[in-house]
Amino acid sequence: MIVELCLMFAFAGAMGFLPGVEGQITPKHEVDAVWAKLPERWVVASVGAVCVDAQDHVFIINRGGLTDKELDAGISAPPVIEFDPQGNVVHS
Q1: pTM of this structure
Q2: DSSP 8-state code for residue 54
Q3: Angstrom distances, CA of residue 87 to CA of 55, 80, 91
């Protein structure tokens, strides 16, 4: 339950859904499409959640459900993937 709450609040905060402190500037985020360095042929379907720990490691939940066309391009990535700050896979 704690992990699910962490993921939910991390996503909501990143998307700007959580209220900020009055007078505080809301951070802006940019997508870096090549940041995640997945092993060859891993394909991520839709990401269900994202969380960042105290060491700036990023955890994603891969929902799976790839189409036949996507499976022709590779194999389904594991359901949980941990990345280091540079985008390298640490655990899955």
Answers
A1: 0.66
A2: T
A3: 13, 14, 12
